[in-house]
Amino acid sequence: MIFEDKFYIGYRDIDTNLKIKNSAILNIFEDIAGMHASYAGEGLKESNTTWLLTGYKVNIIKRPEYGEKVNVLTWGTEIKNITASREFEIRSKTGELLIVGLSNWVHINLKTKKIEKVSPELIDSYKLEQSKTNFDELKLKKINEPENYLYNKLYKVDWNWIDANNHMNNIYYSEVAEMTLPDEIKKNNNYSGFEIMYKKEVKYGDVIKCLYAENESSYIVAIKNEDLSELHAIVKLNK
Fold first, then answer.
1. Handedness of CA 143, 147, 152, 155 (dihedral sign)
2. Contacts by 37-45 with C-beta closer than 8 Å and gap 24+?
3. pLDDT digit string (tens) for 132-159?
4. What angle, 0 to 180 degrees and rounded to 10, lies between the N-to-C axes of helices 170-180 and 22-39?
């Protein structure tokens, strides 16, 4: 089953170039994934189980701009034991493909906070589209941490960054990574895509250290705790 809805690119979604921000892309993906889960009977209010993100890969063909109405599509490609893969498309109102996304998830019980196997009945309710894909992979590859960094920045996690799971919302990993970039790079917002590997949750009041590196193809930000003993996530923004 392909779940589809329309979204409007509003003022809060755009950068100074009037084009959609990476965080707004992820907001849209998060919203439509939740809508699809609710349709399948696994909404936050109706179910004791949900999905936690373990990774994103997003390829940007053309960024929607302020005032555009876009069609957003999502579907599951695989659910196996405790994990799932989900894809996304953002298309213009004329059908032009603008952005594609691949995400990986793990299934948890909201009451016990433990990983829980997906039942056959729940798998059936998502009506997987196993043959429809824009990628050559279902499972995202590990993002390797750079050996050296150019500099780092510290941030204290604000209450406004916390979601219903009492963790820093997935979208803010992208935002703090871009906050860490050199000014000219983040102002241009000219990435061809990005990847995020989530490793360990961040909680309210935590101090995180964002370490910046770059290579020929990408800008990389590793998000760690203050003493660098734990890796929370790696964000890679492709040139």
1. positive
2. 39/3, 40/122, 40/125, 40/126, 40/127, 41/122, 41/125, 42/122, 42/125, 44/110, 44/164
3. 999 999 999 999 999 999 999 999 999 9
4. 170
Q: 3-class DSSP state for residue 159?
A: helix
Q: What is the pLDDT of residues 187-217, one digit of tens each?
A: 888 899 999 999 999 999 999 999 999 999 9
The label of the residue with tokens 């603008």 reads 98
DSSP β-bridge partners for residue 98: none
Question: How many other CB atoms sit within 10 Å of the CB of residue 146?
Answer: 18
Burial 190-202 (b: 16+ CB within 10 A, else e): ebebbbbbbeeeb
Largest CA distance in the chain: 50
Domains for the chain: give ranges and CATH numbers: 3-126 (3.10.129.10), 151-238 (3.10.129.10)
